[in-house]
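Case study: Adenosine 5'-monophosphoramidase HINT3.
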Amino acid sequence: MSSSNCIFCKIVNKSSPADIKFENDEILIFKDIKPAAIHHYLSIPKEHIANVNSLNSPEHKGLLDRLLAEGKKAVEDQGGDVNDLRLGFHLPPFNTVGHLHLHVISPASSMGLMH
Ligand code: 5GP
Ligand code: ZN
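Here is what the predicted structure looks like once written out:
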């Protein structure tokens, strides 16, 4: 199910562009538009799920693990260092996009040097 005014749903259905690094039936991984490090990816479910508080159905079981595992693989595929990762979910009111997304950032030790 997608939400018509959600920017990440638009990226999922390819009506908005993004630098996509990985996708399967469940997950999409793309580069953050304002990267905090060389590898800064957002690992998201294709389904519109607002945030971790909305993970309430049996199909969501293990989703966070899969977002993380595929996010790490994407960093590896892009030549990044998976031993120097920063991971995180921002929750309301500290998030700006209301579609669940795991930040996967590497190298964490270089964060803040990009801007
Ligand atoms: P958060 O909600 O986790 O605080 O921040 C949302 C993140 O999504 C930010 O790091 C922001 O740069 C990124 N972002 C917002 N809009 C877009 C977009 O249209 N494309 C991409 N690639 N990233 C976006
Ligand atoms: Zn959405």
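For the exam, be able to explain this: The helical segments are 7-12, 63-77.
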